[in-house]
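Hey, can you fold this one?
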Amino acid sequence: MWKCFNSFLSIDNFYYWKQSKDILKINHKLKVVIFGTGWAFNNYIEHYRDEHDVVGVTDWDYAKHGNKIKGIPVLNPYNLGSIDFDKILICSTYIKEIKEQLEQKIQISEDMTLVPYKYQFKSGKPFEDAATRSFALE
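Sure. Predicted structure:
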């Protein structure tokens, strides 16, 4: 048994395994529904849209359902059960509240959510704003 296991751990097999994992990472983008349609969504879409396969955006605001924002259909969150997606990407500063609402209202657990890094919500680069830069240099 160990001989078989040791041969599996050979350098060639490891290289093939690592290469296969890298190919899967390159070829598979997560299918996401973005939760939130405000400024965080706009900034995220403008700069990071290509990181995921965005299948829709959702919000509790019924007036937005059925429309498109930046070419992305706005979905009713109560209909997400009929949509094929991997994760919900929360583009809002109300992360905790949205996770609770998703679980309580439509039974979507926290492990089905993703939250972008804070810098992905912001427009511009760090310290690009003159007032912020001068404050940081004080």
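The first helix runs from residue 2 to 8. Let me know if you want another pass with a different chain boundary.
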